[in-house]
Amino acid sequence: MSLLSVQNLRTEFFSGGRWLEAVSDVSFDLRRGEILGLVGESGCGKSTIAYSIMRLLASNARISAGDVWLEDVNLTEADEATLQGLRGSRLSMIFQDPMTALDSLFTVGHQVIETLQEHLGLNVAEAREHALALLRQVGIPAAEERLNAYPYQFSGGMSQRIALAIAISCHPQVLIADEPTTALDVTIQAQILHLIRRLLVKEQGTGVLLITHDLGVVAQVCDRVAVMYAGKIVEFSDVASIFNNPLHPYTQALLKSLPSQGIARGSLENIQGRVPSLMDWPTGCHFHPRCIHARAICREKTPPLRKAAEGQVVACVLYE
Amino acid sequence: MNDGASPLLRAQGLSKYFPLESGMLASLRGARAAVKAVESVSLDVYAGQTLAIVGESGSGKSTLGRLLLRLMQPSAGHVQYKGENIFTMNRARLRAFRRQAQIILQDPYASLNPRMRVGRIIREPLDIYREGSVAEREKRVHALLERVGLTSAHGRAYPAELSGGQRQRVCIAAALALSPEIIIADEPTSSLDVSVQAQTLNLLSELQRDFNLTYVLITHDLGVVRHFSDRVAVMYLGKIVEEAPTATLFAAPQHPYTQVLFSAIPLPDPSRRINWELPTGEPPSPLDPPSGCHFHPRCPQALKSCSSVVPSLKATAPGRRVACLLYEDRNHLPPNAPSIVRTPSSNMDGRETS
Fold first, then answer.
1. Which residues numbered 91-150 in B keep a CB inside 8 Å of some CB on A?
2. Total domain count for chain B?
3. How far apart are CA A46 and CA A26, in angstroms?
4. Residue B290: left if φ>0, alpha if ψ -120 to 50, beta else—which one?
5. What is the residue range of B317's domain?
6. Which ipTM value was assigned to this complex?
7. Which among A111, A143, B212, B336 counts the fewest CB atoms within 10 Å?
8. Which residue is closest to B228 within chain A, CA to CA?
């Protein structure tokens, strides 16, 4: 059984007097001890999926269909008390901007210790001891002193380490990481990704849903990848297949538009047009207006995700 | 490298210090602490080429970009534009320089006036420099819009009505309005999605070809650097640590920092994964940079003398400079020091290949 199972999820936003679909019939499974990449450009709905799973949607958003199972708990139907119990313990999340996750008025130590007391039932002394061990684990030098520091005294990389330490402390089954390294420099990014892999995935068997727009990050750490375009998963494969044998025209175009992929200088291949907004998603396959392979049927019919090869599913009429 | 051609823009010994705590306590202490954002930077920018300045946050690359345009005064050193020091130019000369040197910034949302229509924004430089008649200016705006892939309908829109990629095109059109020779592009595609980034980079390439533009590209994105630039200067804590032609640098980075930086790039290729045994630690604060070579506390190849000797940028090959004791005269090296000449190999960046 998979750890987390998202089934036919549909999430909508209320805007301009009507409900607009932001996530459209999305299904996937997250396994124990894997990193699943959820990639796509801005506005494709990848963060909305994260907030839907956490049940942290804004008041103008709703889950209108589908289920999200965390093992035997249906998160879409769980009440607030149940969710409170799950969040932070079995289900954890880290964000792009680690500063927003920390309260600027309290010392870092206070916040880590508080979490440990709350979730692990430790007394202050035990929690403090445990917090020190955690800070050392995530590579914070002079941990003892740093416990008494305030978040503003931490760099972005250091804050993300604290957020990770808090996440790790509760042995979550699932970690949702929403662009966790986007705001960081590459050398720090590599360190943080390594920590996620080593301390959570390898040591604790946590399943990580890694949301990112960075295909380089995906190639480096993910086991499987879901590519999203305008609210839908268009391709879902193991990481090697996505990069070596991309099937969906959108995935193919996205990979070709990467500067480091191309030969030095020369023109980059690019996707004509722009990502459609939530207001006016195209009919049929959402990618058809920009697709070089589009046919008449693509405008009318929404292609379902189908198995196209071993370990590869794709939503495109080319493979039907 | 450039066959003795003289550079369009030349920085020499350029430094910028930002003083801290100017209050009473500081004056009592006598010495005023300062962030050395840019420290003794010398570099040449040649016409028609793209020089990339790369570095992580806090390395001083944006400050350097602003100094090159005299958008701030340096603490020391000077910048010559065609042999003339831009910091001693009088009003008229500076005005003439400013029309030749433009800037494009990272955030096209923040750099456009939200209350001005796009056409007006692009026309503004023409108005300021009183280029031609009003009708001619309008015609020029239309041509510029078309040149960057927009239409006159976009010209009537407000910035808020455009996407990020379109807004960056507006910024490019405005920068081009006065037909400049050089454009400083500070993270021009960092806020854009991959597919839009590709469109924008292609546009910048075409414009360079068509108008023989010179670019100084400031970025942390090494994929963009590799694709787009002719030469690269790598900065660490205010200093240039290495400078080389792009292909040479990527084939065999010499400075240990450049090597670390390159080895941390997440390549979009799952068969070439990062070797995770990367140096630990973060760049130190520019408030209190380490002695000697600023990189020595994190350097996997540091020698004893690295904590005391400040390495200077020295040529290691034509057009190639490195500031590292490993490449200096052998007197600094202990007997068992690593070989000075590193041979490039496919596994240079230490990645696991599978």
1. none
2. 1
3. 10
4. beta
5. 256-354
6. 0.84
7. B336
8. A265
